[in-house]
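Hi R.,

Here are the chain sequences for the assembly we discussed:
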Amino acid sequence: MTIPNTYPRSDGRKGIRNTLAVVYLVECAHHVAREIQLPFRENGVHLLGFGGCYPNDYSFRMLKALCTHPNVGAVLLLSLGCEGFNRRALLDAVRETGRPAHLLVIQENQGTRTTIATGRAWADETLRAMASAPRATMLESEIIVGTVCGGSDGTSGITANPGIGRAFDRLVSRGATCIFEETGELIGCEQIMASRAATPALAEILTESVSKAALYYATLGHGSFAPGNADGGLTTQEEKSMGAYSKSGASPISGLLKPGDVPRAGGLYLLDVVPDGDVRFGFPNINDNAEIAELIACGSHVILFATGRGSVVGSAISPVIKVCANPETYRNLSEDMDVDAGRILEGRGTLEEVGDEIHDLVIQTAAGKPTASESLGHQEFVLGYKTFEPIGPTCHPSYQ
Amino acid sequence: MNTIRLSPLDNIVVLTQSLPSGSKVLIGDTEYVLGETLGLGHKLAARNLRRGEKIIKYGAPIGSAICDIPAGSHVHLHNLKSDYLPTFTLDAGREFHAPPKTAP
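And here is the predicted structure of the full complex:
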């Protein structure tokens, strides 16, 4: 299957959207960035950024990966002027890719009003130029799809998650790249998962990544389990894990990634989202959108989001497809959902049919069809502080 | 059919629809009456379970029974605990955020 009208980028990747990203480099520049974006928010201009004042290698790496993501066609950076973020290095990195990029420092532009006016003028002009961007056809093997679950309940592991697993198996068999994540939600199934690793060395790395998550959560006092999970019938972390794990499907696991690592070959990858070293900066990911941002930083063009209780979020940069596990939730929140996977429980479809529907919707979304959260204007984005060691060669056996 | 056994190894079943108290549920060949209203996705014991026994779902252990659980009854926070991490609920959360107790 081929995908028409995608956007070729200088690094060889192709985008399925042509977004202008307005990026604040500290919370102090957030309001100005949002005001610049506001008149253009229906025109593919997205708002994202980093709130912290102190520099952090992870947050720089994340914003660099996001600003040079294939779905991004141009970047406007907003700095207050005194924050620690290396704005010049980020601007240079984006310009090296050939994308239009501009930096506005509020303290050097006479403050709020002038910076907003200058930013809007740049965005307006850049959007006109972006309208005539060259187009290319993308192969299914070029697509990268990430998956996350949020607002899980007792139905997630029966319908939406295994449905996504089937779609992943189909994508991987056609050479595409699929990424699953949240090692804290794999606590209890690390041995089963490790048995699918491409090499014994990778199996050990996968198991270690889950042990690291278990230690992290034990130190923080509780795991990746929200009160709504229990209301929805889930009792323990390992029960939630087994359900979450089924999103990965049945393909062999080709490698382990950390946020910002873009896989260089097709296959199924685990994204390790838990920081390395001592427990510092708090919870690994404070909510689902922090995980989505990391999947996108690994190159995901599309996100498959499984929900039982009913999450409504979308994301900046890459479209989010909402796969609803619970038929009661679907009836309640149908405008926010893309796939009614819970129909399996009511005898209105099979897991295979839901898997096919999810797969086909990935292709249609890549070809430009807006998802429910995109149509509703959802562009949530969260980025915090973390510390990671770079991955070693054993994390990518297929590259050796 | 209002319950599903996800793996033949499982000792619990999952409700496939929300049911009011007093509803009849069929687990294997035996009919039980629900003693409480339960939502879709909640678990019932598929047989009598002993205290300390592993609860099996998807063919994998999801924790241990903290008391004897009769067949057909609700399996949840009151009788099942994780073998890994304590489960956080809003009620437990109030305790979680309470100031540390100091010795008198």
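Chain B has one domain: 3-96. Chain B touches chain A at residues 4, 6, 14-18, 38-43, 57-58, 60-63, 75-77, 80-90, 93, 96 (CB under 8 Å).

Let me know if anything looks off.

Best,
T.
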